[in-house]
Design goal:
By secondary structure, this protein is α+β, with helices and mostly antiparallel strands. It has a single domain, classed as tt1808, chain A (Alpha-Beta Complex), CATH 3.90.1570. Helices cover 21% and strands 30% of the residues. It contains 3 helices and 12 strands, in the order αββαβββββαβββββ. Strands 3-6-7-8-9-10 form a 6-stranded mixed β-sheet, with helices on both faces. The N and C termini lie far apart (62 Å).
């Protein structure tokens, strides 16, 4: 009788030590999941959001902005490591000074994901739920077409903002505001 062996589930630490094979992946419940490489405009939006957010964060000395799919542990046993497009960590969660090695021990307060054409809403909602369960306070889903931002919160109903609406994060970045449409210029 043949026995089918389940592949060993990876921990976040094991996943982080794997050699870089040039593939875009995340760890979901201990298993490596490949993702499509996004179209070029995705990188533009990521850069634009980073620029606007970083200016405010550095001017007010609030913390750190990270970009480009940095690993965030969203679940343990089995482990999940997701890669947000942009994230903000306050100095309360990751203090000033040398950066921690490996995946940071705290979740960011704010995660910003940019919706790609290949993203399915089911997977988007699953990922948002993981972030919120991992102590992220707000997840902003930037949807380039039709120029909207969906805001998901840990403790209240979600909100959809259109291109003419003001985007703010009052509990995380007091005083930060931008018209949603400026994200796409």
């Amino acid at each position: 009788m043949a026995t089918i062996l389940e592949p060993k589930l990876l921990t976040a630490e094991e996943y982080g030590r794997l050699p870089d094979e040039g593939r875009l992946t995340e760890l979901v419940r201990g298993r490596i999941v490949e993702m499509n490489r996004p179209f070029t405009a995705h990188g533009f939006y990521m850069s634009r959001i980073d620029f606007l957010l970083r200016q405010y964060v550095e001017q007010h000395k609030l913390g750190r902005v990270v970009v480009g799919d940095p690993g965030v542990i969203t679940h343990r046993n089995p482990d999940s490591v997701r890669g947000p497009d942009v994230a903000f960590y306050s100095y309360n969660r990751i203090p000033r000074g040398p950066l921690p090695k490996g995946y940071w021990p705290s979740s960011p307060e704010l995660v910003i994901e940019i919706r790609s054409e290949s993203d399915r809403w089911k997977e988007i909602h699953q990922k948002v739920g993981e972030y919120l369960s991992a102590d992220v306070l707000t997840v902003a889903l930037v949807d380039p077409d039709p120029q909207r931002v969906h805001l998901f919160y840990a403790d209240r109903e979600s909100v959809v903002l259109n291109a003419v609406d003001q985007l703010t994060f009052p509990d995380i970045l007091p005083g930060f505001e931008i018209v949603v449409g400026q994200l796409f210029e």
